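Data availability (excerpt). The following record was deposited with the supplementary files.
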Amino acid sequence: MIATDLITILDAVVADGVGQSLDVSQHRFITVAVDTASNANLTLQAVGSIADSCPTFSAAQTAANSYDFISMIDLQDASAVYGDDGIKPAGTDDHRLLTINVDGIKWLNFKVSDYVAGAVTVKIKKFKD
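Predicted structure:
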């Protein structure tokens, strides 16, 4: 597999919001590094879309702004992180490596919600055959 450079999607984010949207249509898998700091208490979810133009991931899901929360696989134990659930550190910091199958997905981003405390950084590498 051929890998791209490491890309930062969220950089020490300390509020609800979304990161940098990426076109992943030429890639098959994404490896994700999630690092939290300062007793993070928030929800982090991967969001994806098959739309031709990038949706506004910070806005509500509609037919005209079509996206969904997508699952990830934790590389530590191969457990699923369900898209609707996301990662929810609750006052403890975490460092995870995950993978996302992006077959057929055009746009990928990460969304922070329910922010209470701490910071979260998300970096990815895109892979293709």
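Summary of structural features: The longest strand covers residues 107-128.
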